[in-house]
Recover the amino acids of this structure.
């Protein structure tokens, strides 16, 4: 194939074009076992091409929980609305008394094995989560206990007053499953959820099959089932949409989006920020002036236009357009003056799991060198680099970070990443003013006042230059022309719902 002689066409997109034909060939017929064809589903079933295979056997106590949520097979006591507020799901109401919350369960709910949802089944599921090792992220640092106080009421008590308990219980990692799912340390979600689709088969890291559950408490789903293929290669996922081998494709790479029919893709701002963390604990960036010099040397717009081909948003702060209230409440930030780099040697780490990050690192290397820094890159798979990043072995680290974690509230992310005792403090930040602001934001009740304090905490972090926010990512989802009702969820908790179907 001869490459177009168009200097404005990104080289990465051209290479992706060459790879697309091979990927399409590899995927041809990959959904044929389900009785479907490249012309679309003929039996009302939806074909999904998903990015990451299961890492923990689809245990809800792991990140695999988000797959169960996106397939509408496992459900939680509450869910989050668009603004991050907790609304009823398996629980219809709740009230707070000090450290204790009482939840009233929905009547008439059955698990996929036919057993009824009761307070005892909720206790079993939540107790398994609190006793897991490691715990689900949403329970990091939270002392939580649960007990049944009636056939359809449960109380959840925390060690200290926690205004976020309902939001925490919306995490897919706290899904409620039938008792049969819990056997020893393993949790098996097959046939154990309460959602409109029943998980009936899992074939390792290759595929999963779900059928409609006609006894679902919320009504009958429009699709008859879901056939899932795990396709880690982004070019292959895009090819599956282009060739008609998949009805819905998640996480279309930026490099592939331009090669698809614009009518088939949807971009949604994600609560995910691409950030350069600067090591404030040791090395050159212990100096506030050098951190300021690095911040001023960075041109995020160049990264958005070049690496992301315009399919991202330049960051004004740590919290982006997926949280529309953030921009309204953001004030001016007082930052220190920049010093001179004078040949300061720095090592920047990042990982290959997200295709764009190594390219981001190369652009930052050029920009920082132009400002006088001597820059070395260390790029590995995430599993092989996380421990070094958390131990402060890099001068800087580029991370694509979810900013609302599992609660729909950014206070937990800010505390985890920037508090002195934060469990994910890559910047090694220890700043009393930041700690005070984070503690205040974490303790106040949900609502407008909490949001104002969250933005004050963001300002306190940014004033240290411990983190330089670069851009806010967008999720790019592909939906075939014959698909209706697919969810476009910035939190990536929903994908196939009651109302999703193939025409």
């Amino acid at each position: 194939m001869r490459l177009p002689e168009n200097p404005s066409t990104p080289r990465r997109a051209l290479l992706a074009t060459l790879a697309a034909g091979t990927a399409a060939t590899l995927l041809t017929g990959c959904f044929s076992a389900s009785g479907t064809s490249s012309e679309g589903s003929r039996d009302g079933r939806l074909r999904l091409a998903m990015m990451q295979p299961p890492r923990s056997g689809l245990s809800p106590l792991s990140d695999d929980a988000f797959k169960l949520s996106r397939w509408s097979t496992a459900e939680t006591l509450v869910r989050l609305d668009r603004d991050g507020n907790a609304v009823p799901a398996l629980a219809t109401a709740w009230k707070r008394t000090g450290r204790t919350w009482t939840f009233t369960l929905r009547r008439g709910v059955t698990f996929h094995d036919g057993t009824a949802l009761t307070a005892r089944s909720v206790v079993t599921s939540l107790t398994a989560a609190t006793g897991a090792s490691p715990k689900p992220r949403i329970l990091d640092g939270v002392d939580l206990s649960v007990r049944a106080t009636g056939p359809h009421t449960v109380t959840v008590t925390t060690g200290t007053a926690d205004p976020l308990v309902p939001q925490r219980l919306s995490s897919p990692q706290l899904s409620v499953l039938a008792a049969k799912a819990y056997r020893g340390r393993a949790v098996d979600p097959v046939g154990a959820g309460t959602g409109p689709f029943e998980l009936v088969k899992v074939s390792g890291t290759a595929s999963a099959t779900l059928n409609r559950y006609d006894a679902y408490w919320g009504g009958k789903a429009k699709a008859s089932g879901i056939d899932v293929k795990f396709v880690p290669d982004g070019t292959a996922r895009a090819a599956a949409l282009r060739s008609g081998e998949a009805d819905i494709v998640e996480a279309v790479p930026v490099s592939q989006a331009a090669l698809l029919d614009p009518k088939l893709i949807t971009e949604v701002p994600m609560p995910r920020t691409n950030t350069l963390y600067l090591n404030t604990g040791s090395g050159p960036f212990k100096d506030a002036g050098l951190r300021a010099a690095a911040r001023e040397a960075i041109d995020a717009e160049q990264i958005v236009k070049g690496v992301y081909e315009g399919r991202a948003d330049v960051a004004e702060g740590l919290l982006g357009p997926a949280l529309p209230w953030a921009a309204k409440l953001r004030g001016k930030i007082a930052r220190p003056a920049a010093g001179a780099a004078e040949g300061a040697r720095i090592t920047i780490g990042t990982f290959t799991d997200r295709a764009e990050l190594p390219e981001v690192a190369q652009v930052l290397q050029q920009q920082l060198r132009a400002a006088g820094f001597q820059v070395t890159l260390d790029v590995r798979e995430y599993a092989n680099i996380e421990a070094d990043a958390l131990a402060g072995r890099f001068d800087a680290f580029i991370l694509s970070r979810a900013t609302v974690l599992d609660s729909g509230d950014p206070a937990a992310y800010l505390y985890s990443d920037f508090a002195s005792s934060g469990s994910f403090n890559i910047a090694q930040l220890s700043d009393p003013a930041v700690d005070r602001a984070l503690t205040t934001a974490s303790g106040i009740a949900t609502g407008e006042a909490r949001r104002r304090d969250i933005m004050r905490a963001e300002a306190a972090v940014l004033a240290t230059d411990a983190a330089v926010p670069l851009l806010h990512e967008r999720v790019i989802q592909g939906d075939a022309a014959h698909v209706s009702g697919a969810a476009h969820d910035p939190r990536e908790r929903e994908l196939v719902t009651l109302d999703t179907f193939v025409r």
Q: What stands out?
A: Residues 29 and 207 are 14 Å apart (CA to CA).
